[in-house]
Amino acid sequence: MSATLPDFLHQHLAEHHLPPALGSVISSICQACVSISAQVRVGALSGILGSAGSGNIQGEEQKKLDVIANNTLVGILQQNPAVAGLASEEEDSFVAANADGGYLVLFDPLDGSSNIDVNISIGTIFSVLAKPSGSLNTASFLQPGRAQVASGYVLYGPQTLLVLTLGHGITVFTLNNEHQFVLTQSNPIIPPATQEFAINMSNQRHWQAPVQDYISELLAGDTGVRGKNYNMRWVASMVAEVHRILMRGGVFLYPQDAREPGKPGKLRLMYEANPLSLLVEQAGGAATNAHTRMLDIQPEGLHQRVAVVLGSKNEVDYISAKHQA
Ligand code: AHM
Ligand code: MG
Fold it and tell me: Where do the annotations place Mg(2+) 1 binding (predicted)?
């Protein structure tokens, strides 16, 4: 019989000499996600689709399910004594939890908000950091991605999947009908070469020269300099794009563009880019902001945005080289 999440955590923590408190934080995150999954599944039947009539600190419209998912995670994590504090894409500033807790949890409660009302895959993304000693403040959270002790996502797609790393490879679980996550895949590896890319092509006129140049090379197909034909996918849920890349390779770009001068990109470093970059690296892929390894970027703010290039290593390296030329 396949291992459930509690079985896996018990064995994995012991094998890698990781503290049981870290396992309890992961369990709380996943308990919240099981509840979010149940609500996503019933959608209109419980009147939870549509706008919440509010906005978040980044000026984005909040959907009812964004708010429900956020409140579910905050409520469950605040009750875990191992959690010192939380930071969420949907909260203005960090939320203090338990003074004696050793961990900080950062999350995008429901990634892919534009897909909520149209029944396309969405997900919860999470990142776990050790709390530095001293009193809790915003600076406690501003650790580079390489300091993450765990990260993962729960993808609410045709199946609800949990993809998790505690820094020793990645493990995929599928939610069964008894609301248990059951291990279904160990250590998927992202092939270094690919012929599939993901980018929002409608922003082409705003891109900088290296991205313009790169995408035109791909579109030229097997008669161009890359010598092969490329396929394109764009789900508009980063969590779903990263899952596809983990399963079969590919490259994902959300580059800096000219729409908002001074802003480095759309996606958030702490809630999206860092946790997904750790997973991608654990699967043998690469993740950068086109110049620097994502996990080495020193964060300056909780809601900081960043350009993202991640996926199959050869392709990410090729794009980085274009930006340095
Ligand atoms: P969200 O957290 O508000 O859902 O925004 C992030 C999402 C990513 O999941 C996705 O890659 C991107 O925004 C899609 O952007 P676009 O609307 O340009 O297609
Ligand atoms: Mg998001």
Answer: 89, 108, 110
